[in-house]
Amino acid sequence: MAIKATVFKATLQIADLDRYYYADHTLTIAQHPSETEERMMVRLTAFALYADEALTFGQGISNDDEPDLWHKDLTGAIERWIVVGLPDERAIRKACGRADKVVIISFGRAAEIWWNENRNKLTRLDNLTVLRLPVDVTQALTKLVNRTMQLQCTIQEGQMMITSEDGVVEIEPVIWHGKLPSGQAWQQN
Length: 189
Fold this sequence. Notes:
Shape: globular
Radius of gyration: 16 Å
């Protein structure tokens, strides 16, 4: 018998002062059996960073033809394709051909190695943004995990802060390639 996904509920209040986006989102997040809490929280962080009424979770980890998050327009065309982790370079090129904008949010101890191996090929892709979240930040995000989460996210001047009753996590993504939705120039590396 297959192990089923664990379902989490999150109420996410977003105040993105850089993009002038203010909204409350009620989210259902399915954690795949092979997915860690850290990766799930990075997906939730990606949602907060690129939040939009049309942004939805894809099957990502369980389906190679879908990203972790995507934003489709009313015709079904893919405007933004967001992948969490360290995807294969060929899969990234394929996504760049299918979507207007592609975002990779890398994390983990192997992220630097992955970027060094793929940098030359990926920096040629004009519609690609590659971000890295520091290991200490992604591990701190796991302390906010509950089956039902009440989270507040504030984004201002290149700083992101996620708050819950269990703590506060400050996030400053490193941009390896491309730019953020606000055009804000965050820490470059």
